[in-house]
Amino acid sequence: MDITTVIFYILSAVLLFAAVRVVTAKNPVHAVLYLVLAFFTSAGHWLLLQSEFLAITLVLVYVGAVMVLFLFVVMMLDINVEKLREGFWRNLPVAATVALIMAFEMVLILTNQHTGLGEFKAAAPLAADASNVKVLGRLLYTTYLLPFELAAVVLLLAMVAAIGLTMRSRKDTKVVDPADQVKIRRNDRVRIVKMQAEKNVEAADAAESGEQQA
Known about the structure:
CATH superfamily: NADH-ubiquinone/plastoquinone oxidoreductase chain 6, subunit NuoJ
CATH class: Mainly Alpha
CATH topology: Four Helix Bundle (Hemerythrin (Met), subunit A)
Oligomer: single chain
Structural class: mainly alpha
Shape: elongated
């Protein structure tokens, strides 16, 4: 067993532990931090596969941007953890069944004679001037062009659906029409009333003396 295999098993163990803790952690902030750890260990796997570009992209995009945003959102929201964990044990059988089905599908894919690892051979060492970005771009836009476009369409649909769910009108929310805001003028909102800046002292004294006599 060489050092690469040892590092692979260590990273895999850390990745499995972090993935389990993402689901089972009671504190949402701790769950997000465990997810960051999972991304770092996944980047280590990419480095073992000599895909430095994907490893750096995973760290910069997910850990450096997306997960930091998630962490700030989770810390700013007042999340009731006990309420979220009420249905954990009730939904556990369904979740375990889905996990087993996904694991079985992955085993079928890996053991298939066309897509499996039966005839997998160790990759030859790359040249010093080899570019992972160039190879990745050639594969994405030639061999895997159709799956790449389908993934882009799915992400676009998810974005449109998220915007549609956010922008829909609800009974408990106030909706503001920008067109009506633009049409508003000052005279419609503000009314200027002219009042005397000073009060006549003699008239005030006469009014007070009249009230006392009465």
